[in-house]
Structures are given as C-alpha cells and as structure tokens.
Amino acid sequence: MSLKVIGTGFGRTGTLSTKIALEQLGFGPCHKMVEVMGNPAQQ
What we know:
Elements: H1 15-24, H2 33-38
C-alpha cells in the first residue's frame, strides 16, 4: 500500500467529515487517530 494523501487537522474541526469525504473520493481506507490508537497493528 502506498501513501497517497495526508490530511491533518485539530480534533473537533471536521476531521470525521474529511475522512468520510476522502473515502467517498476513493482515497480509502482513511484512519482517524482514535482508530489508530485503539488498534496497535495500524501504528
């Protein structure tokens, strides 16, 4: 898997909306930090 897009943002500033939009545009799977912290295999 190659990295295509890095989207950054402060918490509570629309990061979930950005994640959903990127996935709908075909840039998935996208991960929010909460998901990464909850699954050590993604780190």
